[in-house]
Amino acid sequence: MAPSVFSTTVVLCFCFILVPQDTNAVSPTSNKYKFLYFPFGSTGSHFMTLSQSANVLARLGHHVTFLSSNDAPKWQRADDADVFSRVVFKTRYTKTDEMNAAHELSRTTLRGESRNGFFIFNSIYNSVVYGNPPIVDVFLGQCDDLLSDDLAIAKLRSEEFDMLVGDSGLICNPLLAQKLDIPFVLCSNLPIIPAGYRLYYGVPADPSYIPEYTTRYTSNEMTFFQRVHNVLSYGVQDFLLRQYLEMYYPLKVKHNIKPEMSMLDSQRQAEIMFFNGNYPLETARPLNPNTIFINPVVGLPSNQVVVNEDVADFLETAPAGFVICSFGSYVAVMERDTLQMFADGFALLPYRVLWQTNGHMSNIKLADNVKIVKWVPLAQIMNHTNAKAIVSHGGINSVVEATLAALPVVGIPLMVDQFSNIDKVVAYGLGIALEFNEVTPQTLSSAITTVVEKPRFRERALHASRILSDLTSFAPPAETQANWILHVTKFGGDHLRPPINDSYFSNLLDVYLFLVLILALILGFNVCFLYFCCVRRCTRNQGKDKRE
């Protein structure tokens, strides 16, 4: 080799070594795996969150199949049609049945029955007194239909999937994985629920400093009586969540899916568990190696906003900016008076309002500054230069997307984690909370005006945005999630699994019992010794009395 060629080769190799490598990027692999995704529905934020990692895996050449019921639409986005395969199972429920169940859930929520966060408590109580609520019946029934569909199960078995990736909201996922005899990963569209995820997945949750979400406490520093309340809340949630989980046990028996293993044991077999959210909105806390925070991957900010021309013009020409209002895709039922109340509150604002809702708005009188849309890419709209604030129900996706966009929040929570999410927003100084059943046009407009005009809300939002954006930059959500899924597919998750997942009680229970036994022996010895001394003393005194 000529000296010049040799020198050039050395220089090129040296430069290649010095080039910084992206350790978070998903690298191609020679092994191609098959993944079965079972989402919570085929539309909405749950589906979109789960599909992001599926897109990454499909781009790398892995085979990804989505499982859905025959009444579900194929895809929310047309460009996904050629990316994934699909297996359909037959269900007794029609789309109308599911919509009616969702609407009943919405009506329950809007009546304020979930205000305290004990949504599962209400569901279980009502199931005992009145029978299962419609939404629970749908979940149980669809799971039974899936496990009973021999053709669908045979098709899934023939594919020989390497991993099931499921939404933790579907308790059916562990049952399906056991029936197919494949490992599974669970993805939560919620932040960590302390008592629930401590029970289900062994996530460390010390009630002395980690508030249970139903308490609405946001600080690790609780008073004595707050800690008493917190401990009791953990106990109540633990009991109720066990009851909810065991509703599915009859399906294990019916379909002979490892009936010797409890539902709790089955749930804890997850190789890895992803939770929605990240700091600074999440309370600092310990995590097990197999429990990982993933920032919401739905609609990450983009410099280009793609909306209809009339919507784009409405936003671009807003002289004082605009406010966004959205209560999520599952809150579809609002009384006319409630909708009109919101419309009247928006009419008092100097800003334009882009109101995303799937409610019936035909009889609602709207001011000229309000525009109704069925759906828009909220994350992109939040990053518009004219965006001033968002009015939200407090779903974790909306809260984190607003934080990334440095947008102040007016939170009106409705159910489950939304109360805790908005409490954290308020505690961190990112917005204001309102009670749904107490909102008036005046309080609504006042709260929006306050978060827009008071600089402290935007300043705190900017600070939180920088933290969250930095975390997202070196841990891209979809790629990070896909990396972990590939990791446990290749190597399994035993090296990440904490021993607590195999024990419902403290691993030191035998030690505590031994110490109690030793203490009892010591106390018993002391009591016997004192008794012996007292008897001897009394005997001596009696002897003296007789001699006298």
Name a few traits of the molecule.
Rossmann fold, 6-stranded parallel sheet, alpha/beta, 7-stranded parallel sheet, 548 residues, 20 helices
Task: Walk me through what this model shows.
With 548 residues, the protein is an alpha/beta fold. The chain folds into 3 domains: 34-295 and 477-502, 3-Layer(aba) Sandwich (Rossmann fold); 309-473, 3-Layer(aba) Sandwich (Rossmann fold); 508-548. It has 20 helices and 13 strands. The strands form 2 sheets. Strands 3-2-1-4-5-6-7 form a 7-stranded parallel β-sheet, with helices on both faces. It has a 6-stranded parallel β-sheet with strand order 10-9-8-11-12-13, with helices on both faces. Helix 8 (194-201) crosses helix 9. The protein is globular, with a radius of gyration of 29 Å. The chain starts with a helix and ends with a helix. Mean pLDDT is 81; it is low at 1-25.
Secondary-structure map:
Layout: H1 3-18, E1 34-38, H2 44-59, E2 63-69, E3 85-89, H3 95-110, H4 119-129, H5 134-148, H6 150-159, E4 163-167, H7 172-180, E5 184-187, H8 194-201, H9 224-246, H10 249-254, H11 263-267, E6 273-276, E7 291-294, H12 309-316, E8 322-326, H13 336-347, E9 352-356, E10 370-373, H14 378-382, E11 387-392, H15 396-404, E12 409-411, H16 418-427, E13 431-433, H17 441-453, H18 455-474, H19 477-491, H20 509-547
Parallel strand pairs: 1-2, 1-4, 2-3, 4-5, 5-6, 6-7, 8-9, 8-11, 9-10, 11-12, 12-13
